[in-house]
Design goal:
Largest sheet: 6 strands, mixed
Radius of gyration: 23 Å
CATH superfamily of the largest domain: Bordetella uptake gene, domain 1
Number of domains: 2
Strand order of the largest sheet: 2-1-3-10-4-11
Order of helices and strands: HHEHEHEHEEHEHEHEHEEHHEH
Distance between the termini: 66 Å
CATH architecture of the largest domain: 3-Layer(aba) Sandwich
Mean pLDDT: 91
Length: 325
């Protein structure tokens, strides 16, 4: 009886390898058109990255990739929609550090779980923020800013585009690392925040690269540091804040996610073609001019990055006592 069971087990192994979930999921994929949901309005970096990888996937497989913008709820509406789709690789999300690392900590009652409902597929790229100050403040370096803030606790104020935004949390992490007291002034949008910063009503901000670049070029604002680990090609003279504050690092990243239970073979196939797009010298050069760094990685490496950032931002939000509205 035991020998018979062993023989059956030997026969079952190759049959299992022939099951659709083993090789068929990859060989037959995609079986239809793919929908890539962007949970933000059209025109942003995540939307443009989605449209870039769309061309790569369509050329590789001869299937249409439909970009569907589903903005709202700080990215949660589109994200929740994809979380409820079948895990077959035909419904995907162009997610971000916000949808999968920040929002889960800010809004724990969201109707999706970033960890349980999704599989990280492909990391696309990242951009830092720029720590900028008004020239009237008279500081030229991060070290000088910290010294000024310590000498004048509660006097400096920083702008953000809202509670829980990347600009807000980058500043809170800065406050925690530097041990300074700086007042948060949230705005409803980037336009008014930029106007008040350039006008001197607000002394500092952590700003989007493209938004702040014209003000740096005209001397209306002064850049002290970037939040990322490495210098940017578009702003090579601006040092990382981490050079002054060890351990300080903030990158806003984007990446493709699939619903849970999507077969690993399908994930690998999507990942391989996304990385071919990211590996193009022309593509890299184009995005570098926008202040965005592309970095191909495996789905496993991307999963580890998401987990690290989720832990990091959960702690920052807790320590800063940030309560979502």
């Amino acid at each position: 009886m035991i020998k018979r069971r062993a023989a059956l087990a030997c026969l079952a192994a190759p049959l299992a390898a022939l099951a659709p979930g083993a090789w068929g999921a990859s060989d037959d994929f995609p079986a239809k058109n793919i929908t890539l949901v962007v949970p933000y309005p059209a025109g942003g970096a995540n939307d443009l990255l989605a449209r870039g990888v769309k061309v790569q996937w369509e050329a590789a497989w001869g299937r249409s990739v439909l970009i569907e913008n589903k903005p709202g709820g700080y990215g949660s509406i589109g994200t929740e929609f994809v979380s409820r789709q079948p895990g077959d690789g035909h419904s995907l999300l162009m997610g971000s550090v916000a949808t999968h690392a920040i929002n889960p900590a800010l809004y724990p009652k969201h109707r999706y779980s970033a960890e349980r409902d999704f599989v990280p597929v492909a990391y696309m790229g990242s951009t830092p923020l720029i720590l900028t100050v008004h020239p009237s403040l008279g500081v030229k370096t991060v070290q000088e800013l910290i010294a000024y803030a310590k000498k004048h606790p509660g006097k400096l104020s920083y702008a953000s585009v809202g509670l829980g935004s990347a600009a807000h949390l980058s500043a809170e992490l800065f406050k925690q690392k530097a041990g300074v007291d700086i007042v948060h002034v949230p705005y409803r949008g980037i336009s008014q925040a930029s106007t008040d910063l350039v006008g001197g009503q607000i002394e500092m901000a952590f700003s989007n690269v493209l938004n702040v670049l014209p003000y740096l070029q005209t001397g209306k604002l002064v850049a002290l540091g970037i939040t990322g680990r490495d210098r940017l090609a578009v702003l090579p003279k601006i040092p990382p804040i981490g050079d002054t504050l060890p351990g300080y690092e903030v990158d806003l990243w984007w990446g493709v996610f699939a619903p849970a239970k999507t077969p690993q073979a399908v994930v690998d196939k999507l990942n391989a073609e996304a990385n071919r797009y990211l590996d193009s010298k022309e593509t890299r050069a184009r995005w570098e001019r926008e202040g965005i760094t592309l970095a191909p990685m495996s789905s496993t490496q991307f999963k580890e990055l998401v987990a690290r950032d989720a832990t990091k931002w959960t702690q920052v939000i807790k320590d800063a006592k940030v309560v979502a509205e």
